[in-house]
Amino acid sequence: MMQWRAGTVVGEVRRWPGAVELRVALEGVAAAGGDEVRALAYTAMVGVPATGERVLLNASALLRGLGTGGLAFVVARTDALPDDPETGAGHIVKARYTPLQQMLLAVDEQDSPHHAVLAGADDLDGLPVVVADLHSALPAVVAGVRHVAPDARVAYVMTDGGALPAAFSRAVAGLTDAGWLAATLTVGQAFGGDHEAVTTHTGLLAARHVVRADVVVVAQGPGNVGTGTRWGYSGVACADALHAVDVLGGRGIASLRVSGTDRRERHLGISHHSRTAYGRALLTAADVPLTTLPDADLDALVRRQVADLVSGARATLTPVEVPAEGLLDALRTSPVGLTTMGRGLDVDPAPFLAAAAAGAHAAACAR
């Protein structure tokens, strides 16, 4: 189902690389909350709509109150087509067979200057790879890496379980601008990174052999699909990512999704999402970093859950204790805001500390 709206741009809210957020006055049927909405335009697709321009919007998720950040999306400008981009190499199509499909140059395709390197690449040479369920873990993982190895080159492999355009992520834009990310590689149907890759496998290999990363973080883009069932959530793909790391000779590090304040019992302590992905779906060995949490009761709960996870898992999971000293201070240096499921570091430090511990462990492995 797609709900269309038309409107006129009345102003710009903010912009970051690849995206511009606009205020749009709607025509006809109003959206919930009034006749003006916030709308996001991806500049590679539609350019930058000017104030006074008429635009067509996809307002489906906005009208249903779903997690797109309260945004509609600009599908087209009715009175001004963006200029054609320069025709160049590249024939890999992403968002395939949709009206907004993109033709891109993938790092692993024949026209790529890196094709020869990747054609022979088959090994990550022990490269530490942190795999996380939620996109919100990304800045925390990188903060943990930098806590141990400030000069480490960190690459982000963005999978297609959440947002497909990398430009949707202000976190990626901010981390890149601050020099915390050496490169973003968008894999599968995700697009818009510094490098495109056809699969998670070639994204990982490009992170190692093209970007020359010391540590890699794999996580979906912003947004997380969940159905309240054991298997119906996009984060189950964490297991697939760790399988790819293992097949390619990397060191898999499973970042735990942890919360001390989530009102849903299934997410308290270690989320059932982590317990399913790492305890049931995962078939290859991985390290499981943990650190001391400020709340003693929560810390004890997480440690019991880790013990249960390790003893009941199908794969060999190795708990790794990461010193907590300095991790909170490292998190507070993040150049982008830390928030997960609407909660920040001061409200719920546990998810960020768990992710930072994974990053710190990865950095120690890379030495």
Please describe the structure with a list of short key phrases separated by commas or semicolons:
19 strands, six-stranded parallel sheet, alpha/beta, 367 residues, OB fold (Dihydrolipoamide Acetyltransferase, E2P), Rossmann fold
Order the strands across the largest sheet as they lie in space: 11-10-9-12-8-13
pLDDT averaged over residues: 93
What percent of the residues sit in helical stretches (DSSP H or I)?
25-40%
Distance between the termini: 50 Å
Work out the number of β strands.
19
CATH topology-level fold name of the largest domain: Rossmann fold
What is the annotated CATH architecture of the largest domain?
3-Layer(aba) Sandwich
Overall 3D form = globular
Radius of gyration: 21 Å
What's the CATH class label of the largest domain? Alpha Beta
Beta strand %: 25-35%
Main sheet attributes: strand count, strand direction, barrel closure: 6 strands, parallel
Q: How many structural domains are formed by the residues?
A: 2
Discrete helix count: 11
In the predicted model, the low-confidence regions spanning at least 5 consecutive residues are none
Order of helices and strands: EEEHEHEEEHEHEHEEHEHEEEHEHEHEEH
Structural class of the helix and strand makeup? alpha/beta
Structure characterization notes:
It is a single chain. The protein is an alpha/beta fold. It folds into two domains: about 5-75, OB fold (Dihydrolipoamide Acetyltransferase, E2P) (Beta Barrel); about 115-365, 3-Layer(aba) Sandwich (Rossmann fold), CATH 3.40.50. The protein is about 30% helix and about 25% strand. The chain is built from eleven helices and 19 strands. It has helices at about 45, 60-65, 115-120, 135-150, 170-175, 200-210, 235-245, 270-280, 295-310, 325-330, 350-365; strands at about 5-15, 20-25, 35-40, 55-60, 70-75, 90-95, 100-105, 130, 155-160, 185, 195, 215-220, 250-255, 260, 270, 285-290, 315-320, 340, 345. The strands form six sheets. Strands 11-10-9-12-8-13 form a six-stranded parallel β-sheet, with helices on both faces. The protein has a five-stranded mixed beta barrel with strand order 1-2-3-5-4. Strands 6-7 form a two-stranded antiparallel sheet. α4 (about 135-150) packs across α11 (about 350-365). The model has no long low-confidence stretch (mean pLDDT about 95).
